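A further point concerns the way the authors explain their paired sequence and structure data. Showing the layout once, in full, would remove most of the difficulty. For illustration, here is how one protein appears when written out as sequence plus structure tokens:
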Amino acid sequence: MTLIRVTVEKRALRAMVKFTAKDDIRYYLQGVLLELGADDMRLCATNGHMLGLMRAPYADSDERPAQAGFEAIIPGDLIKGIKKPGRRDTVYLTVELDPVAGTIYLIDGETRSSAKLIDAKFPAYRFVIPGSRGDKISGKVAQFNPEYVYAFLEARAELGNNLPIVTIGHNGDSGALVTIGRDDFVGVLM
């Protein structure tokens, strides 16, 4: 397999890292999944209690993988090194994946950072998204850790919308659907 090169919004990566685990024995939860599909790519992160998922279109210059469904887990520490884009900065960076060497490169203008991809299988995140399997959302009120709710507010601010609005679709003892006012984002509080 050859080098895969895609363009990703800096803010999206910085927002997704808000949902990663901190110092968890499940080391694969300390990174962000980059899933390359046939028509778009997805960024997903979870700490086991909350989940953030973003869809992003491919740029015209992106080299899509030959086989849709390619996955790579980007280390969270590498993403945390991405500077928040200022008004005059580019808002995108290039992600180069070398599946053979298991290496990822983040290229931001003249700056090139690299790390080893996290060598693990990311959890099957689709199964925890309420309504994704045809199940009904109960609406039964639940209580959530305020720290996790705040992570959604931080992600919303990172994505460029500073209105402190997060909508939680209560679902009793099951995962609650969370929206932050963007059609390309879905969240879950468990």
